[in-house]
Amino acid sequence: IRIYDRSHWYRWSRQFDKEKKAAQEALDKMLFQEAKEAIDNQTFVLEADRVYFKYGTSAFVSSNTNFVGLDGDKAVVQVAFNVPFSGPNGLGGITVDGNASNYKVKTDKKGNIHVSMNVMGIGISAQVSIDIPYGSNNATVDILPNFNSSHMTLSGQILPLKKANVFKGRSL
Questions:
Q1: Is 101 within 8 Å of 120 (Cβ atoms)?
Q2: Which of 4, 96, 125, 167 is most buried, taking the most CB atoms under 10 A from its CB?
Q3: DSSP code string of the chain
Q4: Is the CB of residue 46 less than 8 Å from the CB of residue 130?
């Protein structure tokens, strides 16, 4: 039986941590490139798992019912909360399904991506602003609807449309 001292385990543990960190960085880089390509092709979905409200409160939400999606010039913005009433979209929130306009993508010196667009549905519209930090597919989206002053921010992951797993409620 071979007995190792603590320094051996410490060195092994540090090496394992370095390898784990390197693998995570490689995965994050790949997911960022995939998200960047989806944004350039205008076929992406931001699946949100957290929502931040106007006065700083936040809540965890279901990513398959809280999302912003774009497929060419067609866009969907949906928020749905776990509340006892069904709301206009049947899921406890609102769904804006319409045309995207003023689609702009900017990349800063650090490689961070900023996407902005307007989504115009029947009777309502929203301004959407998405920020993606370099090296990750995690993003935040600011939504400013025209039907009230309930500015909100969602955070989640940018995915190509083909990888998205979302459920769209009734549109307004």
A1: yes
A2: 96
A3: -----HHHHHHHHHHHHHHHHHHHHHHHHHHHHHHHHHHHTTEEEEEEEEEE-TTS-EEE--TTTSEEEEETTEEEEEEE---SS--TTSSSEEEEEEEEEEEEEEE-TT--EEEEEEEE-SS-EEEEEEEE-TT-SEEEEEEEESSSS--EEEEEEEEEGGG---------
A4: yes
Q: Dihedral sign, CA of 10, 13, 17, 19?
A: positive
> Tens digits of per-residue pLDDT, 107-166?
999 999 999 999 998 867 889 999 999 999 999 999 988 766 678 899 999 999 999 888
Residue 22 has pLDDT above 60, yes or no: yes
